[in-house]
Amino acid sequence: MTPALYPPSPASLPAGFTRPSGRYMGLVAAMLASILLFLVLYAALLAGAAGLVYLTLTHHFESYGLWTGLFHLGCVVAALMLVAFLLKALFKRGPISYLSQHPRLSREAHPALFAFVDQLCAEAGADRPKYICVSSEVNAAVFYDNATRSLFWPTRKNLLIGLGLVNGLTLSEFKAVLAHEFGHFAQRSMRLGSYVNTASRLIHDMVYERDKWDEMLVQWRALDIRVSAAAWLITALVWVMRKLLQLAYQGIHLVHASLSREMEFQADRVAVSLAGSDAMCQVLYQLGPVSTALGAATGQLGMALEHKLATDDVFYHQSVYLAENLAQREAPAPPAPGEPRRLFRPDEVNVVEMYASHPADYLREEQAQAHPVPGPTDERSAWLLFNNPEELRRLVTQCIYPEAAAGKAPEVRPAAEIEAFLAAERAEITYAPMYGGTYEQRIITTLNPDKLADLVDTTALPAGTLAEARTALFGPELKARTDAHTARQANLQKLALFRQGHTKDKFFTVAGTRYPATEAATVAARLERENELYRAECADFDRQTALLHHHLFAQAPAAQREEWLARFRFQFGIQRAYETVRSVDMEAHRLVFQIQQQDTIQEADVARYVADFEQLRTLLDVALEEARTVPMLPLAHLEGFATLTDFVLQNRALPQYATFTNEWINTFLSGTTLSEERMRRLYFKNLGVLLRLQEAV
Predict the structure, then answer these.
(1) Membrane-spanning residues where (predicted)?
(2) CA 72 – CA 229 distance, rounded (Å)
(3) CA angle (357, 360, 366) in 5-degree steps
């Protein structure tokens, strides 16, 4: 590797800088103990189930009749089912390896990257990775190509590099990221993670998953009590087992989360030792905008995929959004007198994150800067380490698109063309600053355009001429009201942490006033009342603006007025359908969540859920039938659809007659979600056109 591509490492470090802490070693011991306790519990349950099989096989009743024999047979079958319950998770396939999901790089194709990695591993005292794979993610990670094999004998670790991360980092920052990962490479406790993941997968399957085993038990319990008595006994035993395993699951994860956070601190120390304190902190500071940019890019590209258009470079779009994010990001708050400069500040409310695997960024920065280690900076792009990065970007971009059936594959176009398509889409949903963000945050009040004249009797406009009324309605008070609502929502989220017991803080601050934690519910109730007032003000504002433009367009040429009325009627049709579709989608997801929370589902539950889903299906069907009478109006990229329903369904049929099966529920959920997304897109696009028509009158 050309030495010029490898930023120099810090010249000196404090003694013992990367030595593991006592807390780290203590948590390793606790993790080992929790795994051993789980193995003992699992072995005890399995031995108990096997003993029950033996007991039922060898037990003899004094006399046997038909029902006695059936009961004895049922006890044997129940005991065998108990053994199957404990063993079935061992034979289920584990997660797919990263090696089969992501492209693997070779030393011959990317010599500079591998030389960079070799030198970094040598300085970190870590083994070189067996393989280096790449993905589109904003991430870098250590993984085993066979997690099960790593449980029993030494297995070399592999390195996953997310090109979404590379796309937003400099060489110095990229070195800090890889140094952090090689800090994990050097941690022997990494293997404990494999044991934890395996144990978690077993427990999760037994406690939370429901499969054919559970269906058989439900069917058995539905039989005559003389035949199903053993099934009810095993149901009680399984319930007790699941509760015990659930406690084990929570305990293992609690210890593992604590160890994981300490492992992150330890890996951060390695990164600081090889790249310097500032580079490590700058990476943390950059991750937010980089992740947000990639999320925005993939979200927009998902919309383009609806039009059978695919980009050849997702990272081109990420760069566009990243530039916007960085331009809008506020500079870090200046330090208080006598305090060092910090990129992060503690959250106002400290959340008790018992199961978080990573420490808060401000804590990681505090550690990195506790003993500042200066390091040289290299502002060049990390892409310099990859040969032919354009081809690699195209290869990884292909991996983010799902496989399509023959004849339905999207058309891959240059990223610049796709971005122009997306820019035109965004232009329709970008509203003028005069609206102060009020239309981006909510759904406007549904008003029938053919009854706007009735508003004259119920709605008063601001005093003065129509022009003065418009100035008053869209004045600075509008943005102030929206900003106040946004702040109120943030405060309600903060107060929810107190009400749900997720923080142990004794005080909180709202609107500059400090309150004791005991008043969280009272303050939240007050804010909710203010929200109700805000919604009433918005509804009044919507009626006033509709009446205002009803008067303004009455003075406009007939063609201009008819165009506005047609667009208003279209918005009215969209909103009526959208409100129903959104309600159905939310309720369907609530039902699924409710189903997932139940340990067992009885026949009466099944009948109730089928009736609930059928009611939702009927509501959706009625809404879409009504939407079939709403003709589509011209909008960017939405040509070729005659009615609103044609656009929402696009030749896709929703499932008929609800049934309590995974296939029906999943098909219905995907249908409601896709319908809601398309309705939402249509709502905001048409609203943008409607607002621009009103601005022009």
Answers:
(1) 27-57, 69-91
(2) 10
(3) 125
